[in-house]
Design brief:
Largest sheet: 7 strands, mixed
Number of strands: 25
Shape: globular
Mean pLDDT: 93
CATH superfamily of the largest domain: Aconitase, domain 3
CATH architecture of the largest domain: 2-Layer Sandwich
Structural class: alpha/beta
Number of helices: 20
Number of domains: 3
Low-confidence stretches: 427-439
Radius of gyration: 23 Å
Distance between the termini: 37 Å
Strand order of the largest sheet: 22-21-20-19-23-24-25
Length: about 600
């Protein structure tokens, strides 16, 4: 049987000669990472369940979310990880190293055809080298550390063929945004994708990382690039070992083939709140900006920083505008120093931070304040993700040009005189109100419905990143839906046994376990959605929180009473006497649910 790239990788790592979409396998994991915000929770799960570490040589901590340790809870979590690492002989890429997934590639920890999991929802950037990478929650990572494997459902694969030639101003970030515009927030939901075409083939490793990193924002499991000769040689040199690339069979079967024409694509930008709300830069040109951030796992590579330096060289950041630059790894930081880029950045007036995730993870420089307008090279601009202001997503060239101009613009349209501020509004501070509840759901659930009539509710709206350092589940309920407009008071209204019904792609975005555990804290019995973000669904299953896929949102109102059989998928609207069908629990899901979670 012919197979796609991801099917071959999964088959090799599950002891099978072949797999197909829908198969659930136990897959060996070559590289097992935990970051500084997820690491403490991984340790907690391992120690609470009396587990050990399967292979310390394949197991790593990466402190990339808050390298500065500027938050006391982050500092405490990092120290907890260090102590655990000493006990088990685990290598730490500490606060001076950089983003873990980039280190996995650059340090040769993972190569083409390998498998990697991390508490980073953008671990799928490993697709840039033709490897399997997946962000997972704390329970999944703890299981991988203890057992060396995870359960996984083989996803279908979409073949993407890039045609046409974009303009010289178009960068890999613009191409990634073009794909995001094409597929939307859930156009690749639950799928792997393979990218082909002349443009894709000639892309450098840095460019491939940029495009692959945006797969999460399209709902994809991973975006895979067949490794080029250049990428293979890079991986050989970095790992010091032979690499075995994996390519799809010529007659591999795909869910569908999508042809995306790049001809006519120009510099693009995502408007605030939604990464998929992609428009041309010219359509929003002239918008006054307060700050610019260049970095992240999407655009913190050397090519990205060179592109920014080309724009900034001989220029100054516009008066009143703050420019923050954070390289992805310390090796890139050092290369910027050796090649003179650091001098260009500093002469332009930029603040340069030590390597890491920066504003994307809310733990380092890059955050913005109320009313602040930011142009960022990150991969997400969910409301509240990078602070209280508005965040536009763009390429390094567009970001640097906007910093110099003082307004959103492209690198070829920088005005001779920067635009300055005329007035500003005072900042406003909002505080949360605490509450907490806990409940255990039965197999057949009867409960009151809360209807969230929204698609693509992301994990920042469910559980804001400013609360990521909370590790006690009893404290998490008070923050549920705290960043979802109109639902901020949900913790005060919800009762144990309640059921949430919502739209498509619920739980898009981050791998944070707290976005599941906050509902467990409140005693929510069940979440029913048209579809779920892939990582979110895994996290819920592994936490023992009942989740079901069903098209129910148009049949119910707030306060309706429904009865749901998790084993059969039958849904009964009690007052309306309507019977509907949801997707029943799989055998794996049922077993994990019945024992109270993956690690129980």
């Amino acid at each position: 049987m012919s197979m796609t790239i991801i099917e071959k990788i999964i088959a090799r790592h599950s002891g099978r000669t072949q797999v197909q979409p829908g198969d659930i396998v136990e897959m060996e994991i070559d590289v097992r990472l935990a970051r500084d915000f997820g690491g403490a929770n991984v340790i907690k799960e391992i120690e609470e369940h009396g587990l050990g570490v399967d292979d310390p040589r394949r197991t790593f901590f990466t402190f990339d979310c808050n390298p500065t340790g500027s938050d006391q809870k982050y500092a405490a979590n990092q120290q907890l990880c260090r102590q655990f690492a000493r006990k088990w002989g685990i290598r730490i890429f500490d606060i001076n190293a950089g983003i873990g997934t980039h280190l996995a590639i650059d340090e040769g920890l993972a190569g083409p055809g390998d498998t990697l999991v991390s508490t980073d929802s953008h671990a799928n950037i490993l697709g840039a080298i033709g490897a399997f990478g997946q962000g997972m929650g704390d329970k999944d990572i703890a299981y991988a550390w203890a057992k060396g494997k995870v359960w996984f459902e083989v996803p279908p694969t979409v073949r993407i063929e890039l045609t046409g030639t974009p303009s010289p101003l178009v960068t890999p970030k613009d191409v990634g945004l073009a794909l995001l515009r094409y597929f939307g927030a859930n156009g690749l939901l639950g799928c792997a994708a393979e990218v082909y075409g002349e443009y894709a083939h000639q892309l450098s490793l840095d460019g491939r990382i940029t495009v692959a990193s945006l797969g999460t924002e399209m709902g994809a499991i991973i975006i895979l690039f067949p490794p080029s000769a250049e990428v293979l040689e890079y991986c050989r040199q970095r790992s010091g070992r032979p690499v075995e690339p994996v390519y799809a069979d010529p007659d591999a079967s795909y869910l569908r083939v999508e042809r995306v024409d790049l001809a006519g694509v120009e510099p693009l930008i995502s408007r605030p709140g939604h990464p998929e709300d992609v428009v041309t830069v010219t359509s929003v040109a002239g918008r006054k900006v307060d700050s610019v951030f260049i970095g992240s796992c999407t655009n913190g590579r050397m090519e990205d920083l060179r592109a920014a330096a080309e724009v900034l060289k001989g220029r100054k950041v516009a008066p009143g505008v703050v420019l923050k630059i954070v390289p992805a790894t310390d090796a890139i930081w050092q290369q910027c120093l050796r090649t003179g880029l650091m001098e260009i950045f500093k002469q332009a007036g930029a603040l340069v931070g030590n390597a890491g995730c920066a504003g994307c993870a809310a733990g380092q420089i890059g955050q913005n304040g109320p009313g602040e307008v930011t142009v960022s090279t990150g991969n997400r601009n969910f409301t509240g993700k990078q602070g209280k202001g508005e965040v536009y997503l763009a390429s390094p060239a567009t970001a640097a040009a906007s910093a110099v101009a003082g307004i959103i613009t492209t690198s070829d349209r920088i005005p001779p005189v920067p635009v300055t501020f005329e007035s500003s509004e005072p900042a406003k501070i909002i505080t949360a109100v605490p509450t907490q509840r806990v409940s255990v759901p039965p197999l057949v659930i009867t409960g009151r419905v809360w209807v969230v009539r929204k698609d693509n509710v992301d994990t920042d709206q469910i559980y804001h990143n400013r609360h990521l350092t909370v590790t006690d589940i009893r404290e998490m309920g008070q923050f549920a839906f705290g960043n979802l407009p109109g639902w901020e008071d949900f913790p005060q209204k919800a009762q144990p046994g309640d059921i949430i019904v919502t739209g498509a792609n619920f739980g898009a975005g981050s791998s944070r376990q707290q976005a599941v555990d906050c509902f467990k804290s409140l005693g929510i019995a069940l979440i029913i959605a048209r579809s779920f973000g892939a990582i979110y669904f895994r996290n819920a299953v592994n936490a023992g929180l009942a989740v079901m896929t069903a098209d129910l949102i148009d049949y119910v109102q707030n306060g309706d009473q429904i009865q749901v059989n998790l084993k059969t998928g039958e849904i009964i609207l009690l007052e309306k006497k309507i019977r509907l069908q949801g997707k029943p629990f799989s055998q794996v899901q049922l077993e994990i649910y019945q024992r109270g979670g993956l690690l129980s």
